[in-house]
Specification:
heterodimer; A: alpha+beta; Jelly Rolls; four-stranded antiparallel beta sheet; B: alpha/beta; Elongation Factor Tu (Ef-tu), domain 3; Rossmann fold; seven-stranded mixed beta sheet; six-stranded antiparallel beta sheet; 6 helices; 15 strands
Chain lengths: ~150, ~290
């Protein structure tokens, strides 16, 4: 039976992960498809998964009364989406909406969380990788806040 | 002919580099709410001086003042000089109010250009932020004119909002090229924007180029350039192959007055385009 392991193994997020860990992760992975305009996750809902985008784009959005949905970032092929599953209260902070046909690998947060608790080595690998993504997004957010192109 | 002031108009011009040559505005066009382009021809006719992509002119609004502005037109065209700038200071605001038929003084071209010839045989990555696309547009023209001399050509452009995207029609035309990868992103989007939202630096990780055989040319706000070069280096591009265009307080334009001194260099004469490895240590020095 074909598994998602070879696809995950090629993704930079899993680069250097030991084969037995990759096998554990694959056990929590599944393919998902979304149509353009479809909501993948909704702000405030329980965060049970994170996603690796294989093809297509999605937007992270936040709802503001009087303004509707404000798009804050586009994520696309190769990007990892979602860390709310890792931290209590495990709720999505933003809404994710497909802006084109979207193919993702969904990773079951509860399944991974349990495996990480059982094997802290795996947990450490995940935290290292998510810390990197968080640092990149934090730096990007800081630069966005600087509003560099604005006339001073 | 209308004059912005009353300069001594002459059809012969001095070889003195400090004397501006009069140019007439043939077309004035707003590219966004605060950015405009002027198309200029020399008074009395003739070609504009040959220039290299990345060079700038000292542009004089008669009776107001003189400022450096990068040339944003096609270096292959000698019939028209194009400058794009933002109306942000005394001189550029006065410049934005000039009408077709009025005059400006122009000295130049000055400065070190983008290394478009040195980049032959390599992949090219052009990263522009905001109005930083203007000084890079001549490089794009030159590269596209000699497209067969280069590997992959990638343009990454970031603007503040969709309304601030510069040269929109041209970007759309370039995007339609089969041998050109153009990615545009905005920091803040409106709901009708269908394109990418996020920083231009975030486009680098996925951009299709071979980092070991790439020449990168970067122009935008200095903080944006610093973070762009970090991302480039993370991708594996050697800092010797990254070029940035700096902006400093230039007055004479020919390395005499010292206003634009930057470490050992003069931005007007030794730059404005510098190899990143040459200036990286000065970019984070507050005193320089």
């Amino acid at each position: 039976m074909k598994t998602l392991e070879p696809i995950l193994a090629k993704h930079p997020f899993f680069a250097g992960l030991q084969p037995h860990y990759l096998e554990l992760v694959t056990g929590c992975a599944s393919n998902m498809h979304f149509k353009a305009g479809e909501t993948i996750f909704q702000e405030g809902d329980e965060a049970k998964q994170f996603f690796i985008i294989r093809e297509g784009t999605l937007r992270l959005q936040v709802f503001a009364p009087g303004q509707g949905e404000i798009s804050i970032q586009t994520l696309e092929s190769g990007d990892v989406v979602g860390w709310s599953w890792l931290f209590p209260p495990h709720r999505w902070h933003f809404t994710g909406r497909a802006t084109s046909a979207l193919r993702v690998i969904a990773l079951d947060g509860q399944c991974l969380y349990t495996k990480c608790e059982q094997d802290h080595g795996l947990g450490y690998e995940f935290l290292k990788r998510f810390s990197h993504i968080m640092m990149d997004r934090l730096q990007a957010t800081r630069l966005q806040l600087l509003d560099l192109y604005k006339v001073n | 002919m209308l004059l912005s002031a009353e300069p001594a108009v002459t059809t012969t011009f001095s070889s003195d580099p400090m004397i501006p040559r009069p140019y007439e505005i043939q077309r004035a066009k707003w590219d966004s709410s605060d950015t405009f382009s002027l198309e200029l021809t020399p008074v009395g006719g003739g070609d504009i001086p040959a220039f290299e992509p990345g060079q700038f002119n000292m542009v004089y609004v008669y009776g107001v003042g003189e400022i450096p502005i990068s040339i944003s037109g096609d270096p292959a065209r000698r019939d028209m000089l194009i400058h794009t700038t933002r109306a942000v200071g005394t001189v550029t605001r006065a410049m934005s109010e000039l009408k077709v038929g009025m005059m400006l003084g122009v000295r130049g071209p000055y400065g070190a250009p983008w290394p478009v010839d040195e980049a032959r045989g390599k992949d090219i990555v052009i990263v522009a932020g905001g109005i930083g696309l203007a000084p890079l547009r001549p490089a794009m023209y030159r590269i596209l004119a000699y497209r067969e001399h280069y590997g992959r050509v990638v343009l990454l452009y970031g603007a503040r909002t969709p309304a601030d995207v510069l040269y929109r029609k041209q970007l759309e035309q370039w995007r339609a090229h089969f041998d050109l990868d153009v990615f545009v992103t905005v920091d803040r989007a409106t709901n009708n924007w269908r394109g990418s939202i996020g920083l231009v630096t975030q486009l680098i990780v996925r951009a299709p180029f071979d980092p070991l055989n790439t020449m990168a040319m970067v122009c935008g706000p200095e903080v944006m350039m610093r973070f762009t070069t970090l991302e480039m280096e993370k991708r594996g591009v050697n800092s010797d192959n990254i070029y940035v265009s700096l902006e400093r307080n230039m007055k004479c334009g020919i390395g005499l007055c010292g206003h634009c001194q930057f470490g050992r260099e003069f931005v007007c004469k030794d730059g404005p385009v510098f190899r990143y490895s040459q200036v990286r240590h000065f970019l984070t020095k507050w005193e320089v």
